[in-house]
Amino acid sequence: MAALLALLSAGLGGSADFVGGYVSKRLPAPAVVWLSQCVGLGFVIAIVLVLGGGTVDRSYLFWAIGVGQALLLGLVAFYTALANGKMGVVAPIAALGVVLPVMWALVVGHERLSLGQCVGIGLAILGIVLASGPELEGGAGMRPLLLAIAAGAGFGVMTICLSEGSAEEPLMTTLVARTSLLLSLTIFLFASRRFTLSAMGWASAPIVVLLGLLDVGALLAAAYAMSIGLVSVVSVLCSLYPVATVVLARLVLKERAKPVQMVGVVSVMAGVVLLGAG
């Protein structure tokens, strides 16, 4: 069940990236991100009101706030890196952030994996990097590379915090994380004076709502997967979202995938099979 939830998270996350990239070409990206985060937070609040949530133990709060802040820092570093470097260089480096939660689970969590699972994790991580379409030739300076490393670290720390908070309260961890992220994002956007809703119309509402639901759905699925499965395995499966983005771009926009990306997809599929069998 944990593996299925993790794959669902990857599928939803990849779909959110695809929809976000598509709509950001037509609408101001800061407004799209902010509104979609509001939608996602509203959705989680509705679930909490229906199902209830929260325990006497509030130890998850520290980790939940960490999820929101690490994710925001990762996103800021990632998009700043994209503005200064090539997608084919930045994305694969940022994707390597998945190594952090794997090492955390093995060293701190003392998780034990079979040989097949170890090979599966290696193939999956290799596939994630290749599916992102690495371009190793040419140089754009060190700044994009350092920002990409920072983005990967942010995403990795976010996953670690999510795994720790979700061990007790997956739903409340998601709620607090979204609230933390939205508050910091609002402050950041207003401080940078890049925030305006003037270009947003009602016609854009459905796509923004869809983006918000996909995004928060990915986080919820990941939280519940980590609450019942091995973090070292789940974190890798959740990180397969670039594959979903590549597949959607091929099916919907008829974009041609690079040969290296197809090799990455095959590597990911082999890794998933080994992880599932383990």
Low-confidence stretches: none
The number of helical segments is 12
Please give the alpha-carbon distance between the first and last residues: 13 Å
What is the alpha-carbon Rg in Å? 18 Å
Number of strands: 0
How many domains would you count in the coordinates?
Answer: 1
**Which structural class do the helices and strands define?**
mainly alpha
- Which percent bin holds the helix content? over 70%
General shape: globular
Order of secondary-structure elements: HHHHHHHHHHHH
**Mean pLDDT metric:** 84
The largest pleated sheet is described as: none
Instruction: Please report which band the strand proportion falls in: under 5%, 5-15%, 15-25%, 25-35%, 35-45% or over 45%.
Output: under 5%
In words, what does this structure look like?
The protein is an all-alpha fold and 278 residues long. It has one domain (2-277). Helices cover 78% and strands 0% of the residues. It has 12 helices and no strands. It has helices at 2-24, 29-51, 60-84, 87-95, 99-107, 115-131, 142-166, 170-192, 205-228, 231-238, 241-252, 259-277. α5 (99-107) packs across α7 and α7 crosses α9 (205-228). The protein is globular. The two termini are 13 Å apart. The mean pLDDT is 84.
